[in-house]
């Protein structure tokens, strides 16, 4: 079975969706490790409740981003994970440090990429007057939210939607999209891209801290 590691900074509802799918026999993976940059992330508790090993790294304990990310990936490597899933991991990752994982690291992002990379995607879709919104699962490359898109879920924006309503309605689609993509990978029906193919995509990034 595919060994999966997950990184999450927040409440962890997408992680929970993966665990539920696994428990329901719809996702043939083993969870090797869940990591976070926030000691109080809800995702860590959800992982512990599911018997998945966890770890936290505090960015303040590291001199710079690259050192943090190298230690992060060292621990993920040591877990024997085949694939890494970013499920609400709210940090920019150093382009050099992530190179060994390009092609086997995916992220879920709450917009119809290439629209609205970065933060506040729901607000930006509303402010733009969009009639549709959505979520994307994409390969992670050095370019922030810029790697090749694998799959998207699209929803209508309804008159009167506010940021919170839109985010919440989208979330339930995220909870279907992410397990569906991971299932394709686990069943060998979605090829992981060779790193050299996607590595061409992005220059090492020098994005501001988020
Ligand atoms: C999700 O909406 C996810 O798409 C988003 O954070 C939320 C995490 O929720 N990710 C990003 O914005 C990544 N740039 P969760 O902790 O309940 O899974």
UniProtKB/TrEMBL annotation:
What keywords is this UniProt entry annotated with?
A: Purine biosynthesis, Transferase
Active site positions, chain numbering: 109 (proton donor)
The GO biological-process annotations, alphabetized, read as: 'de novo' IMP biosynthetic process
| Residues involved in N(1)-(5-phospho-beta-D-ribosyl)glycinamide binding | 12-14
For this protein, the record's CDD domains field holds: FMT_core_GART
The UniProt GO MF terms for this protein read: phosphoribosylglycinamide formyltransferase activity
> Per its UniProt record, what SUPFAM superfamilies does this chain match?
Formyltransferase
- Entry's EC annotation: 2.1.2.2
- Binding of (6R)-10-formyltetrahydrofolate: at which residues? 65, 107
The catalysed reaction is:
N(1)-(5-phospho-beta-D-ribosyl)glycinamide + (6R)-10-formyltetrahydrofolate = N(2)-formyl-N(1)-(5-phospho-beta-D-ribosyl)glycinamide + (6S)-5,6,7,8-tetrahydrofolate + H(+)
The cross-references to InterPro entries, in alphabetical order and at most eight, read: Formyl_transf_N, Formyl_transf_N_sf, GART, GART_AS
Chain's role: Catalyzes the transfer of a formyl group from 10-formyltetrahydrofolate to 5-phospho-ribosyl-glycinamide (GAR), producing 5-phospho-ribosyl-N-formylglycinamide (FGAR) and tetrahydrofolate.
Q: List the NCBIfam families hit by this protein, alphabetically.
A: PurN (TIGR00639)
What is the protein's given name?
Phosphoribosylglycinamide formyltransferase
What is the species listed in this Swiss-Prot or TrEMBL entry? Dyella jiangningensis
Q: What is the lineage of its organism?
A: Bacteria, Pseudomonadati, Pseudomonadota, Gammaproteobacteria, Lysobacterales
GN (gene name): purN
């Amino acid at each position: 079975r595919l060994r999966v590691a997950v990184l999450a900074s927040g409440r962890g509802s997408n992680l929970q969706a993966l665990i539920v799918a696994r428990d329901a026999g719809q996702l043939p993976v083993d969870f090797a490790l869940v990591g976070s940059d926030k000691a109080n992330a809800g995702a860590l508790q959800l992982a512990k409740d599911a018997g998945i090993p966890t770890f936290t790294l505090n960015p303040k304990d590291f001199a710079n981003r690259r050192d943090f990310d190298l230690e992060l990936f060292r621990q993920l490597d040591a877990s024997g994970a085949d694939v890494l899933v970013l499920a609400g991991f709210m940090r920019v990752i150093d382009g050099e440090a992530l190179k060994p994982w390009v092609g086997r690291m995916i992220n879920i992002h709450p917009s119809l990429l290439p629209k609205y990379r970065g933060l506040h995607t729901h607000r930006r879709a509303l402010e733009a007057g969009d009639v549709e919104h959505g979520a994307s699962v994409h390969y992670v490359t050095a370019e922030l939210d810029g790697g090749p898109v694998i799959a998207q879920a699209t929803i209508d924006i309804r008159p009167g939607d506010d940021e919170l309503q839109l985010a919440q309605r989208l979330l339930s689609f995220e909870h279907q999209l992410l397990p569906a993509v991971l299932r394709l990978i686990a069943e060998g029906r979605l090829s992981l891209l060779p790193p050299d193919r996607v590595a061409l995509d992005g220059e090492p990034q020098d994005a501001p801290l988020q």
